[in-house]
Amino acid sequence: MAGVETESELPTEDQLRQLLKFMEHETKFTEPKKISKSTPQDNHPPPAAVKRVQTFYVDKWPNVKQDQVVVEKSHSALSRLKPLIGGTPITIETAIALRHIVSGTTVHPLSSDWKKAGMLFHNQQGPFPYGLQTLKNGPRGLILCIQAFVIKHLLFMGDKTTEFLLDQNVLEPSNWERREALVGAIVEILWKAGDGRRCCVTLLQDVDCFQTNHQCRADGITEKLHVFEFSQREDLAIFIKRYINYFEFESSHGLILFLYSLTLTRSIPRILEDMGHPDERHSKLLTDMEECTLALVSLVLTGRATRYLHNGDLVYARDGLVLSQPLVGIRQRSDIGMLFWNKGEDTDNRTQVGSMLKTPKYPIWLTCINNQYGLLFSIFADLVSDWRMEHRFQLNYYNGLASHTRATKLNLDTRFGRQSTARTALQRHEEEKKIPVLEQCILTKWYGAEVDWNATLPHI
Predict the structure, then answer these.
(1) Nearest to 244 by CA among 180, 152, 149, 199
(2) By the 8 A CB rule, do 360 and 384 touch?
(3) Whole-angstrom distance, CA of residue 396 vs CA of residue 116
(4) pLDDT 10s per residue in the chain (460 long)?
């Protein structure tokens, strides 16, 4: 009958055996491998084959066995920094001129204080999370100049409202905020030194750019510089943000790189012109003790390396005679101010600081007291634009030293003058000698102000 299977139609045993052999031949079935018992010497699994990933610049990787792969560890100080692409290797002529204008010699390198100085912030859990770490001598003045611009960007750049400034956490920025402020400070200083037209940045490489000789001894830094030039501020900001680590780490000599960048940005001929010395052999930015000169401080604050702090140009001497060469001072109001006090100067022959620095655009003052640098600043921008704010106000003092472990806040009152018990000129002179030097410096700006240290010992 249709649709009904008969016994003859079913596959026989021989047919099934032939079908199984056919399937084994076509699919290449094999018997499972026997796992041998491991011996004590074969406890570890066999090494996996090295697998290379092809990239856009490698056509084919060679076949390398695992026991032939050797990874070399880099012991270079720059190994943890981002690799550089581009730049112009410095020439020996530029290196000689650069070291002459900075330190006055190409034989002796800068001291270890300068080499290990970088733009490192204090711990965020400490009393100064906004502050850069400084040393006692040498590079301290330059670091605090940069710190002044960092404070400017933290407090006054952008849309900062009064409520923001009144916030107790205004001086406790996050790590991202303070690094952005540092980038903005470096860009502003360099761009101002280049008159808003050009800028140079020097960064370090591992390979020497030239062979040193008796005219230029190797110092481990200058002969390895690569120079990057910029004509747009936006490009400079992107570059500094990308390579900010070169200025932070001690191993990369960050502060020296910034100093060299600032010098090449202003250009050596223009620095000599600003200083009033056409002969570079008698002009340098660091003293014999490798401390910052007033010319270097002016270069950072104003963009011009002037050696004097008064307003404009002085043509006449104190006795009324015409000077053989005018004394060039500050010609426009600075963003960051400066106050100066030195107890070794005569009362009638003190260093003059003009109103261009005493009354800056922002309430931030670099202080130089007996050749020791510090910072005074207020969180209120109206202090330098509204005279009524100067009746009673508060200033913060910062010097960046590790010994400065407590915030110093000074309350100033200029309404009634200082209280004095002196009756004679001799008593008044003795009374003035007891005034702390920081107050003496403050009195050069706010004469007769009463200063309250808020139960803090005058440690300056």
Answers:
(1) 180
(2) yes
(3) 28
(4) 444 444 445 667 777 777 777 666 655 444 444 444 444 444 555 555 444 444 334 344 444 444 443 333 334 455 556 667 778 999 999 999 999 999 999 888 999 999 999 999 999 888 899 999 998 778 999 999 999 999 999 999 877 666 666 665 788 999 999 999 999 999 999 999 999 999 999 999 888 898 888 888 889 899 999 999 999 999 999 999 999 999 987 777 999 999 999 999 999 999 999 998 665 556 899 999 999 999 999 999 999 999 999 999 988 888 888 888 888 999 999 999 999 999 888 877 888 899 999 999 999 999 999 999 999 999 988 999 998 999 999 999 999 888 888 889 999 999 988 877 777 878 777 777 888 999 999 999 999 899 999 988 886 6
Query: How far is Cα of residue 301 from the mean position of the Cα atoms in its chain?
Result: 15
* CB neighbour list of residue 309: distance below 8 Å, 6 or more residues apart: 294, 298, 329, 330, 338, 340, 351, 352, 353, 354, 357
Q: Say how far apart CA 270 and CA 304 lie, in whole Å.
A: 9
Q: Which two tokens stand for residue 242?
A: 């990308």
Specify the pTM. 0.80
**Residue 210, token pair as written in the block:** 């030239």
**Using an 8 Å Cβ cutoff, are 383 and 360 in contact?**
no
Q: What are 34's two structure tokens? A: 């026997």
Look up residue 124 and give its two tokens: 């965020």
